[in-house]
Amino acid sequence: MSYTLDIYHGRAIPVKKIIDFACYISMFPQLVAGPIVRFSQIESQLQKRSVTSDQFADGVRRFIIGLSKKLLIADTVAPVADTMFGISYPSFGAAWLGALAFSLQIYFDFSGYSDMAIGLGRMFGFRLPENFNSPYRATSVGDFWRRWHMSLSFWLRDYLYIPLGGSRVTVLKAITWISLVNFSVSKI
User: Fold this and answer.
1) Tens digit of pLDDT for each residue in 92-113?
2) Other Cβ atoms within 10 Å of 56 Cβ, number
3) Dist CA 112 CA 68 (whole Å)
4) What is the rounded distance in angstroms from the CA atom of residue 142 to the CA atom of residue 153?
5) How far apart are the C-alpha atoms of 52 and 115, rounded to whole Å?
6) What separation in angstroms does the CA of 165 have from each of 42, 44, 80, 174?
7) Pair 85, 102: CB distance under 8 Å
8) pLDDT tens digit string along 7-62?
9) Considering only Cβ atoms within 10 Å of each terminal Cβ, which end of the chain, N or C, has fewer?
C-alpha cells in the first residue's frame, strides 16, 4: 500500500525496473514483525546500496542480539505465563507472576524480532528505521504507544489519521468513519 500511496501523493517516483519493485515488495526483513518500511524511506536504497564488512558485522551482531532476546528470554518466560494463565482461580501472587512473565515475553519477543529484522536488512545493505524504543520506560500511555511499534504508529498517523482529517475532523465525521470501518470489517 505504501508504494501506491507514496506515488499517488508525490512522495516517491515510480520505479523504472520491475526488479526494484519486486525487491521492495518481497523484502523479508521488514515482514518479520516490523519495522514497517515505507517505499519512500527505502526507494534510494533499492537503487544504490553497498555492503561493507563493518555493516555486515553490525547486522550480524544486531541479529544475534535479537535472536538472543527471543530465545533466551521470551521463550524462557513464555511457559511461566502460560502456566499462570492456565490456572482457573489463580492466587494474587500467581496472577502477578503471570502478568510479569507475559509482559517480559511480549517485550522481548517484539524487541527481538525488530532487532533481527533490522540486522538482516543491515546485512543486505539496507538501513531500516528503528521500531522499538524502550516502551516500558514510557511516562504515559501515549508515550508508550509512540515507543512500542514506532513504524506502525507513524504509518497509521501518516496514511490514515491525517488523510482522514486528523484532529480537525468533527465528532460526527469521526463516528461515521469508525462506523464504516466497523461495518466493513464485520463483513469480511
Assistant:
1) 999 999 999 999 999 999 899 8
2) 15
3) 7
4) 11
5) 19
6) 27, 30, 44, 9
7) yes
8) 888 888 888 888 888 888 777 555 545 677 888 888 888 888 888 999 999 999 99
9) C
